[in-house]
Amino acid sequence: MTTAAASSPRTYQVRTYGCQMNVHDSERISGLLEQAGYVRAAEADEHPDVVVFNTCAVRENADNRLYGNLGHLRPVKDKHPGMQIAVGGCLAQKDRGDIVRKAPWVDVVFGTHNIGSLPVLLERARHNTAAEVEILESLDVFPSTLPTRRESTYAGWVSISVGCNNTCTFCIVPALRGKEKDRRPGDVLSEVRALVDEGVLEVTLLGQNVNSYGVEFGDRLAFGKLLRACGDIEGLERVRFTSPHPKDFTDDVIAAMAETPNVCHSLHMPLQSGSDDVLKAMRRSYRAERYLGIISKVRAAMPDAAITTDIIVGFPGETDADFERTLDVVREARFSSAFTFQYSKRPGTPAATMDGQLPKQVVQERYERLIACVDEITWAENRKLVGETVEVLVAVGEGRKDERTGRMSGRARDGRLVHFDAGSYAGQIRPGDIVHTTVTYAAPHHLNADGEPLSHRRTRAGDAAEAGRSPRTPGVLLGLPTIGAPAAAPAPTTGCAAH
After folding, report:
1. Which is it for the CA torsion 41, 47, 48, 53, positive or negative?
2. Quick check: 304 and 311 in contact, CB under 8 A?
3. Cα separation of 226 and 190, whole Å?
4. What is the pTM of this model?
5. DSSP 231-290
6. How far is CA 44 from CA 13, 22, 47, 147, 407, in A?
7. Which tens digit of pLDDT belongs to each residue from 99-155?
8. Which residue of 50, 113, 324, 496 has the lowest C-beta tally within 10 Å?
9. SS3 call for 291
10. Whole-angstrom Cα distance, residue 357 to residue 369?
11. Cα(216)–Cα(221) distance, rounded to whole angstroms?
12. φ, ψ dihedrals at 396, nearest 5°
């Protein structure tokens, strides 16, 4: 190997599956690797030096998807000595040593509690030429203290807690993410301010159950207070959060949403089922009446609120009457969109061994009926916005057909996807800029605005996107080993924006 080759930085690629928590964890994985001297591989690079899979274990096909992708990589690795493959996330926490047994060409397996160990494990595996498997049973370092390579110039995730204290019978997440651990409010707000200082306009507060935030330090009103504190941060234009839990949702949070100008009037409130019997079997700790009561209070305080949800069809023991009750709640709640799932049996969850597992054809038929019901309602709700003016935060990658249609895309304050014509502003609007425009057409899952925009505001986030910068939060230095040639000088705000 030549000296030049030996000193070249090793390249990496992170492939992410699953929820927003995983997306944000992948930003931390990228930050850790870059702090250790790795460089992100170009998208066209088919054989980076390190490939990291950040996995999800919620759906039934998660295992097949991972092992299929690992199988595709085996011949690539065989042709490129020195290439490393790492598997982390929820599936790694669940399967542990089984991953290396099933795919012995994997170099590193790490869990949800020790993301910060990845650079050390990669080096150890290289040195020992043997797989390294490290799965911790509890949190090692709070993830938000780790360096983070943010994927967006205009929007950022901020974790307020990790783990979950609920025991929903269909969910394996608490077993893999552990008990809830809360960050102190001052630490959360410091991270939010750091993002805003770099030009970020929108922050989403993340937790498996944001409504129980504060349980560790004995303040059950802590989440509402945190929302109000975000309202005092100059330059922060939009605040969102996910996911709340109906059993912990309190009136002070509704008041904080309604009274804090930068908190968006959008709420993702998982329903899961409209049947009280099914909710009881799921151990969801609320009933349909309680759920609809929250929706009514939210709409009374914020008539323009857009409410989205999660719904599972075909839970063990679900009857036709149970399913009809779910449709009734969907019709009453008038969701702006819904993430719908067919029940997926996950080994290790109580629901996996329950009586009354339903045939696939029954679940499929109910699922199709639910989709039709949801689409009918979301389309009707979206049509109410035709002729209304919306404020759009311009995004990257939201509109798959934008190149063909000549439109740009972004999210309205209520979270709805808007495709808009740039009109006379064509060539001037950047991701991260703000556009006001008028809705001309509604579909079940998006809005179109095909007239001339009413206004265009250039933002610091747009400046960062134009300059190719993405925000980076340094976290706490952990004495991690470095790889390859060090950077010529610290440049925490430079690098290619990938989102």
Report:
1. positive
2. no
3. 12
4. 0.74
5. TTSTT--EEEEE---GGG--HHHHHHHHH-TTB-SEEE---B-S-HHHHHHHT-S--HHH
6. 11, 23, 9, 26, 26
7. 888 999 999 998 877 787 888 889 888 888 888 887 776 555 555 555 555 667 898
8. 496
9. helix
10. 19
11. 12
12. -115, 130
Q: Give the count of alpha carbons within 13 A of 451, CB side only.
A: 13
Taking the C-alpha atoms of residue 307 and residue 240, their distance in angstroms, rounded to an integer, is: 12
Phi, psi of 184 (to 5 degrees): -70, 145
Angle between helices 320-333 and 288-301 (to 10 degrees): 10
Tokens linked to 499:
């989102």
Residue type, 318: E
Is-contact 181 220, C-beta < 8 A? no
Q: In what order do the strands lie in the sheet with 337-342?
A: 266-268, 306-313, 337-342
Six token digits for residue 239: 């605040």
Cβ(399)–Cβ(409) below 8 Å: yes
Residue 29 in contact with residue 88, Cβ under 8 Å? yes
CB 225 within 8 A of CB 191: no
Looking at the chain, the number of H-run helices and the number of E-run strands are 16, 23
Q: Could you give the count of Cα atoms lying within 13 Å of 160 in the half-sphere of its Cβ?
A: 31
- Please tell me the total number of residues recorded for the chain in this structure: 499
Which pLDDT belongs to residue 490? Answer: 31
Query: Which sign does the torsion angle of CA 297, 301, 307, 309 carry?
Result: negative
Instruction: Describe the chain by its helix, strand, coil percentages, rounded to 5.
Output: 35, 20, 45
Share of the chain above pLDDT 70, in %: 87
**How many other CB atoms are there within 10 angstroms of residue 150's CB atom?**
26
What value does the mean pLDDT take over residues 420-438? Answer: 96
Residue with the larger pLDDT of the pair 317 and 94: 317
Collect all residues with Cβ–Cβ distance below 8 Å to 211 and sequence separation of at least 6. Answer: 223, 244, 245, 247, 248, 249, 250, 253
Please give the Cα distance from 94 to 113 (Å, whole number).
Answer: 12
- Selection from 306, 276, 277, 272 nearest residue 290 by Cα: 276
Judged by DSSP in three states, 406 sits in coil
How far is it, in rounded angstroms, from Cα 408 to Cα 390?
Answer: 14
